[in-house]
Each structure stands twice: as C-alpha cells, then as structure tokens.
C-alpha cells in the first residue's frame, strides 16, 4: 500500500490477486487494479467509478485527481473490462470510464470500442459509460454518442468539470462539452425575420381599400366598387392609417407604396370578398 495525493486523505490500494494481475500486460507485481479511496475507511462511499485504461500511470493519476476532488466516491483502475469483471468479489460500478488516448480513432480502434460497449451494455442493469479521449472532433463525438455512450470528456477538461460530467452521466444525463459543439453552432444560419408582408399587416378587405387609396379613389367610389357601406370604408381607412401611423390619405398612399412592393403580384391577385 502506498500513499498518493494528499497523504492524510487518500490511499492507493493495489490488488495483486491472481485474478487481477492478468489485466495489465506482463502480469508482474504492482500491475493489478488500483483503488483510490479515502484513508478513513469508516466513511461510506456513495458511488464507485471504474476507469478502464491500459496506461497504468495515466489511469492512476486520473483516479487520484478525481478522488482528491470527490472524497465520497471510490475510483478503481483496471487495464481492461475483463480484469474488472474477473475481480472477486465482483463489485458493480456506478459509471464505467473508457480511456481512449488517440484523438483520431482508426477503424480497428472503433471495432474495439464497439466490442467493449457490447460487452458492457449486454447485461441487465449495465452501468452508463463515459469516454475520455484526446480528440475533440465533433464527428467522432457524435459517432461515439450514437453507440450508447452517455458522456464524452476531452483530456483538456478540468478535473472539476470532468467530475461533474461523470456525476451527470451517473444521474442519467448525457454530457458533450460545449466547446466541441461551437463549430456546429457557427455553421447554423439563422433566418432573419422577414419584413411583414401586406397580407400580414392588413385584412383582405383592408387590402382592397388600401389598393384603392393608392389610386386616390374617394370613399364613395370605394364603397360602390367593393359593395360596402361608405361608413365601413371610413372604418377601414381609419384602421389602415392607424397601422401605418399615417396622418392623412396622402401619407397612406405614400406609405402603402413603400410597404407593398409586391403590389402587382400580391394586391392584383386579391379577390374582392363578398359583402
């Protein structure tokens, strides 16, 4: 047993049983799974996170850093999934973390990940899986998430954020770093709000009145042509002036020319409503 991290708080426990030594290549003493846990064994650990990493030093440093930030969780490091599954007695994990050092995975490495995930997810009550990798390629992240992984944590992530990401995954959420999504968001073109068209500003009857006003047609003639009372025409004119913030009929004629740029194609196609 050797101290790691804060001397009074953490211990590094090496399990050198016959079952565990087979995990790391070589199988010599000191290569077995490692548990980073509080020195005070009387404290009940709320969860157990299993880290799968063939790189002993990197895996142990990661576990020690996470344990320093979260004293309530036990972090165990194994060389591969099979080593974890063979431990006696077997202790289930709250989250399994697969460490993939390569930023750009080859097809062979992808096939290995698929096999590992199938092994992990093939049992009832399987723990959620997170991946820690050097890569920040969005296509790779999306591909991994589609395989059922619940969290993708780049190695550039701080310890505190990585820990919170694992807690989110344990709670049933999905974590993808925001900075990895920025290129995708940057390529999304936001449609500019279109200027309201004439058919959105006015009712069909008001469109007909507005068209007549642009020609300088008197209210009495508008009423005759549109088969409505002159008093109704006055109400429509008043509402049109209010919407355009016009002070008189001259301003209405001017402002309708400005607003109704599609007069020939839009207003000419409006049918006169029945009275």
Provide a short characterization of the protein structure.
Helices cover 44% and strands 14% of the residues. It has helices at residues 18-21, 56-69, 81-86, 107-121, 138-146, 159-170, 178-186, 198-201, 204-214, 219-226, 230-244, 249-259, 263-266, and strands spanning 2-3, 10-14, 34-38, 47-52, 73-78, 95-100, 129-133, 151-154. Helix 2 links the parallel strand 4 (47-52) and strand 5 (73-78).
Account of the protein in words:
Helix content is 44%, strand content 14%. With 275 residues, the protein is an alpha/beta fold. It has an 8-stranded mixed sheet, sandwiched between helices. Helix 10 packs across helix 11 (230-244) and helix 11 packs across helix 12 (249-259). The protein starts with a strand and ends in a 9-residue tail after the last helix. The model is unreliable at 1-30 (pLDDT under 50).
Strand order of the largest sheet: 1-2-3-5-4-6-7-8
Quickly give the structural class: alpha/beta
CATH superfamily of the largest domain: Response regulator
Task: Report the count of strand segments.
Answer: 8
CATH class of the largest domain: Alpha Beta
**Largest β-sheet summary:** 8 strands, mixed
**What is the quaternary state of this protein?**
single chain
Uncertain segments are 1-30
Strand content: 5-15%
Task: Itemize the secondary structure elements and their pairings.
Blueprint: E1 2-3, E2 10-14, H1 18-21, E3 34-38, E4 47-52, H2 56-69, E5 73-78, H3 81-86, E6 95-100, H4 107-121, E7 129-133, H5 138-146, E8 151-154, H6 159-170, H7 178-186, H8 198-201, H9 204-214, H10 219-226, H11 230-244, H12 249-259, H13 263-266
Helix pairs in contact: 9-11, 9-12, 10-11, 11-12
